Amino acid sequence: MNHNKIKGIGASPGIEIGEIFFIKKNNISIIKKNSSNKPIDEINRLKNSISILEKKILGLKNNLKNKISKENLSIYDSNIEILKDPDLIEKTTHLIKSKNYSAEYSYKYCSEEYAKVINEIDDEYLSARAKDIKEISNELIEILLGKSSANINFSGPKILVSEKISTNEIASFKSKYIKGIVTAEGGSTDHVSIISKALEIPAVVGLKSEIKKLKNNDKLILNGQEGEVIYNPTQKQLKEYKIKKNILKEKFKNVIKKNKETVKTTSGELIKVNANIGSLNDAKKALKYGADGIGLFRTEFCFLNRQNFPSENEQLKLYTKIINVLPKKEFIIRLSDFGSDKKVDYINQPYEQNPAMGYRGLRLGFKYYDKLLKPQLRALIRLSLNYNIKILCPMISDIDDIKEIKKAVINESDDLKLNKTSQIPLGIMIETPNVAMNAKEFIDHVDFFSFGTNDLSQFLMAADRTNENVAKYHEKAIPSIMKLIENVCNISKKKGKWVGICGEIASKKELLKMFIKIGVNELSISPIMIPEIKESIRKIKL
Predict the structure, then answer these.
(1) Given Cys at both, which of 48, 172, 177, 193 links 11, Cβ 3.0 to 4.6 Å?
(2) Is the pTM value of this prediction over 0.70?
(3) Could you give all domains of the chain from N- to C-terminal order, each with its CATH number?
(4) Residue 429 to residues 86, 144, 197, 475, 491, Cα–Cα distance (Å)
(5) At 269, phi and psi to the nearest 5?
């Protein structure tokens, strides 16, 4: 038995050997309850501090925009949602007004009550959310108290160790200097674990009180594969894990190399494993991890941080640059899906009670046709002259929607006078129950279907996919979604057309066999998941 080994939870794979940098947190347990200021002054302090922290989080998000996927970046949007939660702010201001309490005490009290309610629900996702609330609360209170953030200044590669590390803190570090992350708290599904995986930083969490055995500047072996750390390792242990690290590195290279080509099950069924991307960096990751093609190019993510509509030529230039990372691969390019949770300054979007079901996707595209949809269609049509691209249409609700977009493609093609012999392939992203349940009505108007299961789940279960309080319903939607996928596959087979899945469930290994069995032709997933999913497909026997 190794007395210098501590068992935790493997949150992000990989083995690292290095020195510890111990992050000590500020003590904010002692907070002045009552304020000598007027309530209005305390409320203004609260509002100003919220604004400061919001700007900070947006800056941290911007630091990571070229390093991780857009899905993972949305974690920082969630942090802002917690910070600006109207119910939490209302309760805090009420406490300030009614009791003349300080802003920091009031916010701490109300956020703790909020987190407590969520934590009492027996749900792993909500437990992780409660931790996020506490972290945001601590950061805001630090600003209110005028305290500087924890000391995180370090130079050179280090293994970061702390009781807990927030996603905001990770984003504030230079990722190239982070060899690994070790925490006392946390689980494999919390946001810190997700960001660690996205940045490919090995991590072990959940060491609890055992973390007290780790000291600043001590040497540490971190084994994210097994969820363990070895402190003050012997020479024998150092030699052993250096070998293990090299073996793991070579194994990963071989897995990637092995899975550069398309894969078949043991019984010979072929299924394409494509990548979801939203940037040039995502495309490079797709190439690195052996994507068969791009199954979902979220074009709107390229144009979020700007002040005006992207022109036809701007789009053509950017798309060309991204496609040239994998120039011979198939690219399924989704038309801009602005609206709902992806708002931009240059589109005047009115307040909506239910934005997920309002002006978004093609609905918004047609409202701003000349400035939004038209230049994109023309850029894609020109692009199709030299590359294997397909257009994917978001938020199709009825047959008139697809007829309208088909007509627009034909009109813009005619106007460009490019002498194309065939129209660019057009597909529907199945996100609405009406399309999923009535595929027969749409099959003759499209070339393919791709299931956007995240939104489909949301509409099937009447459960907002951005609301943590109803997150449990999305897992329960899977049986219904599988029935819909099977039905669409049966209809498509008869017409010689294909069906893909680009939602979250596409990367669920336990569903792979069923996907193949019911006739799914293509899966589109996060680039980093591709080698693992391809390896799993190779082992499937129907």
Answers:
(1) 193
(2) no
(3) 5-25+151-235 (3.50.30.10), 39-145 (1.10.274.10), 258-538 (3.20.20.60)
(4) 33, 46, 28, 20, 16
(5) -75, 130
Cβ(274)–Cβ(291) below 8 Å: yes
Tens of pLDDT along the chain (542 residues) come to 578 999 999 888 889 999 999 988 766 666 778 888 899 999 999 999 999 999 999 888 887 876 777 667 878 888 898 899 999 999 999 999 999 999 999 999 999 998 888 777 666 666 667 888 888 998 999 899 887 655 466 777 899 999 888 888 888 887 778 999 999 988 776 788 888 888 889 999 999 999 999 999 999 999 998 899 999 999 999 999 999 999 888 877 777 777 777 888 888 888 999 999 988 888 998 998 899 999 999 998 888 777 888 999 999 999 999 999 999 999 999 998 876 555 667 777 776 677 677 777 888 888 889 999 999 999 999 999 999 999 999 999 999 999 999 999 999 999 998 766 568 999 999 999 999 999 999 999 999 999 998 888 888 888 776 665 676 777 788 899 999 999 999 999 999 999 999 977 898 889 999 999 999 999 998 887 888 899 899 899 88
Distance CA 425, CA 195 (A): 35
